[in-house]
């Protein structure tokens, strides 16, 4: 007798949730990515008790069509890619169609969304992966996504959560990354009603750096700008005397996606060379733009890793561009001063 069965959608979603939804910050990341992909210009995040009690993300993006609202919660349901060739040219933050079913499998979710400006909206409630209701409603264009009682039906995972302060720290980190990656979007983060981050969304990256790291850090930054045939680099790096003890001071944004890249970090540090004290890192926000086919983002569902198709060339371009910014701003003025 056959013993092998294909798991039903409900169990499959619970398994995927284990990978996609590690902690409240993972939910915030997925919801923000969806809001950004929807073309929002303002995104408000409200969390209670480190996100364990509730997470609410409200955006003014394109919204979800009424007939798509339930489908959006199916596994591998996405509006962002269609053909396998699209995988080699991803221009959106999401594309796996895994976030909504995964989140809904381990929480109580309520979404109010409208894809039109006539007030027509849809409200859907899903708890532990089971549809509770899906009905007409009224709302302005955009999406209001509420996630309550995360991990209420997976006690083992819930037990694993750290203190509210730790979970909130991870959520703040996600907000910082998103705000630094998208200075053209106005973000707010509130925890138990208190405003923790607010950006204007006027496109001024230095203003976002000030909101995230403080105004004195923003004042110690040098502008970086460079272009090659394949790549464009822009952003800010700190003067060598303004350093931090953690590598996480280095932020890299590729085509609007916040990533971690050991290779890019090394290129950056090589550019500073002997200007940095041992075990100190510059504060940087570097934005790299390239054709989507030059970077593979399909590496891991939740991790921030990417792969580059011409890495050696890219690293050299970054190193040289950063070095020339440092040379101009740091070395030349010093030489002049000595006279
Ligand atoms: P993915 O982002 O990989 O497509 P998700 O499970 O995160 O998968 O979302 C499924 C779909 O739901 C998206 O492709 C998108 O069409 C829709 N969606 C989710 N959140 C939003 C939002 N805030 N605004 C508009 N559409 C959304
Ligand atoms: Mg998504």
From TrEMBL:
The keyword NAD does not apply. GO terms for molecular function: endonuclease activity. Keywords: DNA damage, DNA repair, Endonuclease, Hydrolase, Nuclease. The keyword Nuclease applies. Residues 209-327 form the DNA mismatch repair protein S5 domain. This protein is involved in the repair of mismatches in DNA. It is required for dam-dependent methyl-directed DNA mismatch repair. May act as a 'molecular matchmaker', a protein that promotes the formation of a stable complex between two or more DNA-binding proteins in an ATP-dependent manner without itself being part of a final effector complex. Belongs to the DNA mismatch repair MutL/HexB family. This is DNA mismatch repair protein MutL. The lineage of its organism: Bacteria, Bacillati, Bacillota, Bacilli, Bacillales.
